């Protein structure tokens, strides 16, 4: 099987560096930890952050630093006279999801993918194009996977590697037009904390782009709105040998609540496109006290309250049948649909489209059935749409990425810098105006 061509000579020039960086970064365990007590939530994120600072400084970005909260910041100066060019941000997150192990990642490069199943060496994990339609389109690509029992870490180390390669390339090619580029790598995005301590004023950009998408050509200016729901059930724990008429099993009640929620709709596995869902993803406890956590997601923010009411009412009905038990429901706000902020500055998306077309790719506008750091940053005043990385099957041991598409994403960053360099702005344009 012959290797597929790259989307451009630029992508071909960037491909080796992107892949080398990616393979280096994914070997560092940066899995974030829920219920964090500090930022970042895990020491591996600091390890990766220090490595990135070192590499950025070596590329000539002398102000690169790792701040006290685990954020990496750096600046690439504009080419030529950039005094009146905009300041544009590029972001990716360093952490990986808690859904599967991120320790001991052993990336495998499957050269010249032939189009069939890819069997991974551990846990009988396989990538099957019959159920992964994106994989069908990657014949001839170099495909990167894990070994089958861990995450790969492409979410979002693909984005990290692409930004690093593109910025390093721009730094060594001062003849290429670019605005001032502000770089940021964030911790703990996967536990919805990536934007919490992000200093927008210090960052100083008019807008930013996250590299945290998937399919080649994606531009995303809309995300889910999201809340978390936590249900706690208190029962009565008694030695099981003397429990008759005394025990009230909180764990069983929690399971009954979950079972009483919709099964054929409003779940991730039964919804698609613009349909929202309730996703119960964690259950723990004892007969005396049990807790489960759920994700409430929809593009229509108002529907989150309806989903919370459904869970609350169901919990009260189930627990109400056991008068000695008690239930408590807590709803925590997470992020909101970025569309309402991005639509105020539509040129951010049109500029991205122009850059993608310049790379010879047809832009693909769609909505994120999830969120990014950009969801919260947009709400906080830094409009931040999302771009593709070439990675797929996030949050699972089946995670994979096309090295060819990663090279294209890095090339799009270089093109994006060139398009933004064409724009001149007033000196007094405020941060967060979108340029």
Helix percent reads 25-40%
Radius of gyration: 23 Å
- Average pLDDT reading: 95
Describe the main β-sheet briefly.
Answer: 8 strands, mixed
Structure description:
The chain has 435 residues and is α+β, with helices and mostly antiparallel strands. It is built from 11 helices and 18 strands. 30% of the residues lie in helices and 21% in strands. 50% of the residues are buried. The two termini are 46 Å apart. The strands form 4 sheets. Strands 1-2-8-3-9-16-10-15 form an 8-stranded mixed β-sheet, with helices on both faces. The chain is globular. It has helices spanning 9-26, 43-58, 133-136, 154-171, 200-203, 250-260, 303-320, 339-342, 347-358, 373-380, 403-420; strands at residues 65-66, 72-76, 87-93, 108-110, 118-119, 126-127, 143-145, 180-186, 207-211, 218-223, 225-234, 277-285, 289-298, 326-335, 364-368, 386-387, 391-392, 400-402. A hairpin with a 3-residue loop joins strand 12 (277-285) and strand 13. It folds into 2 domains: 9-223 and 337-420, Zn peptidases (Aminopeptidase), CATH 3.40.630.10; 225-335, Alpha-Beta Plaits (2-Layer Sandwich).
Would you kindly provide a brief summary of this structure?
The chain is α+β, with helices and mostly antiparallel strands. It has helices at residues 9-26, 43-58, 133-136, 154-171, 200-203, 250-260, 303-320, 339-342, 347-358, 373-380, 403-420, and strands spanning 65-66, 72-76, 87-93, 108-110, 118-119, 126-127, 143-145, 180-186, 207-211, 218-223, 225-234, 277-285, 289-298, 326-335, 364-368, 386-387, 391-392, 400-402. An 8-stranded mixed β-sheet has the order 1-2-8-3-9-16-10-15, with helices on both faces. Strands 4-7-18-17 form a 4-stranded antiparallel β-sheet.
